[in-house]
Amino acid sequence: MLARAGYGLGTAALGALLSAGARAANVFPNFTPRAKRVIFLFQSGGPSHLDLFDHKPAIREMFDKDIPPSVFGGQRVTGMVAHQDRFPICPTMYTFGQHGQSGQWLSSLLPHTAKVADEICVVRSMHTEAINHDPAITFIQTGSQLPGRPCLGSWVDYGLGSENQNLPAFVVLNSLPGNGQPDQGLLSRLWGAGFLPSRYQGVQFRSAGDAVLHLSNPPGVTRESRRAMLDGLASLNGRLHERVGDPEIETRIAQYEMAYRMQASVPDLVDTSKEPESVFKLYGEDARKPGTFAANCLLARRLAERNVRFIQLYHRGWDHHGGLTEKIPALARDTDQPAAGLILDLKQRGMLKDTLVIWGGEFGRTVYAQGTLKRDNYGRDHHGRVFSLWMAGGGVKAGHSHGSSDEFGFNVAEDGVHVHDLQATILHLLGVDHEKLTYPFQGRQFRLTDVSGHVVRGILA
């Protein structure tokens, strides 16, 4: 009796904490949101800002010269270049031009992005403390370099909830690069809920077979019999929850119900056969091939149309320590037209104004070469001190360039944007005060931006 009574007191206390967390989530949004949903086109591996977005004409005449110590400063380096005798400057072999009325500087590798130059806001002063992939990706996805925290999509789901009861609020799409070289792996914890209830974790869609594992009923099981089974299971789980009070039991009941509804909603969602030819021309022919970046961009638009709150689209292969000039054109071809097509598609449907689209990776690449340096063949190491990404729609200034790096593309020169600043700004555009979106865990209130982060007012429309 004493053991059961003591357990009941613990359950009551846990229930109070969980209900406090639920109440905290229910106060959002804090103010009128500019964006209703987010599509994050994450380029895993670290795209080279110097070859894509950050025009540095001053270093064109410095080929193979050592980077000045005054610029290099106390930069940490990875183990991959730690034993190099020197750090020779490596200007990009690609040309840059100004595009649109805004005059955005963009690489010749991005001809389709150039056509939407007046729709995007290029942030050229991003920076992070992380210099290796796992901590850097974990940091930009969860706000911490250490695993175990909820990811951005989970925080958004927890804070704002879903606007579609037949689909998850947070969906994950993985794309393989067209050159078949995925490089860095992606761990499911990057779209995990961490210490939040597991109902807030991302749901990964697959490109082959059922879009979601076990979506189809096995032979001999009808939709009616499935409904009866779930009703019986919910009754049993409900009794168990009354007895032990574990909140994950409620999550289990809710997820079974979501899975049942998804059996009806997902097949129509992923069937793009009725899309007009004009749409495939917009995204490119690869949009017909499941699992490509183009196909996933089209699927992201279809998810956005159905009011899915957070769509995380991963594209791998950007880790170019060597042979960058052989690899980056293929990656740019994968993403350039589909990303631009997504912006145009959303705009023509009147959805860009309340859909925030983000394109970027965990860090950039070094201005100095890794390994052998040739004018037309080089590699670059990881670089977190400054890098670039772009945003569009959802309350962001269109045709705008924010911040800058120094003449070497090595350090922030003006208006630096830290990873926590980016996260705070994304939440702000969704109507959420990043300092108020918290969850009690291990004796303190945790938040996505930890103990820092400022909204970047300079990019707000």
Commentary on this structure:
The protein is α/β, with parallel strands linked by helices and 461 residues long. It has a single domain, classed as 3-Layer(aba) Sandwich (Alkaline Phosphatase, subunit A), CATH 3.40.720. It is built from twelve helices and 17 strands. It has helices spanning 2-25, 49-52, 69-72, 111-115, 133-142, 152-160, 223-244, 247-270, 277-283, 293-305, 324-348, 419-429, and strands spanning 37-44, 96-99, 104-107, 120-127, 170-175, 203-205, 310-316, 355-360, 364-369, 380-383, 387-392, 400-402, 404-405, 412-414, 417-418, 438-441, 444-447. Strands 1, 4, 5, 6, 7, 8, 11, 12 and 15 form a nine-stranded mixed β-sheet that branches. Strands 2-3 form a two-stranded antiparallel sheet. A two-stranded antiparallel sheet has the order 9-10. Helix 7 packs antiparallel against helix 8. The longest helix has 25 residues, at 324-348. It is globular, with a radius of gyration of 23 Å. Residues 1-24 have low confidence and may be disordered.
